[in-house]
Specification:
Number of strands: 0
Largest sheet: none
Number of domains: 1
Radius of gyration: 17 Å
CATH architecture: Up-down Bundle
Strand content: under 5%
CATH superfamily: Flagellar protein FliS
CATH class: Mainly Alpha
Length: 150
């Protein structure tokens, strides 16, 4: 594989060789980046740029959130995984509404909540000491305090 941009090449290799736990963190980081970019779109004066910036970045964040949802193992994760699934689906609905109405409120809410998830995941990776980011079954959280509304 030949890449023209060395940074792009590095990012591709980092993504392909990252342990599963680190990949989840990278997905959270990507969603935060795209949600912030969508919010910046509200500052655009040009109507076309306004709509494209918001829409394109929301769609990218939604794609990441959907990937996080699809990666859940509900059988092993039990209630925790089911709660996350509900939360991801709630995020998707909020972002759909925000995109169609061009309303930043839903984007801000998803950004706030996904940032909490990202920090919790990062802390879990640091505490587990396992580079794969997969905690042993007896150390996995049983209850989560994040809830989906609506």
């Amino acid at each position: 594989m030949t890449y023209r941009n060395p940074l792009q090449s590095y990012a591709q290799v980092a993504t392909r060789t990252a342990p599963p736990g680190q990949l989840v963190l990278m997905l959270y980081d990507g969603s935060v980046r795209f949600l912030n970019a969508a919010l910046q779109g509200f500052e655009k004066d040009d109507p076309l740029e306004f709509h494209q910036t918001i829409s394109n970045n929301i769609l990218r964040a939604q794609a990441i959130i959907n990937e996080l949802d699809l990666s859940l193992n509900v059988q092993e994760g039990g209630q925790f995984a089911q709660t996350l699934r509900g939360l991801y689906q709630y995020f998707d609905r909020l972002l759909q509404e925000s995109n169609s109405r061009k309303d930043p409120a839903g984007i801000r809410e998803v950004l706030s909540r996904i940032s909490v998830l990202r920090e919790a995941w990062d802390e879990m990776l640091a505490k587990s000491g396992d580079p794969t980011g997969v905690a042993p079954a007896d150390q996995r959280p049983i209850v989560t305090t994040l809830e989906a509304k609506g």
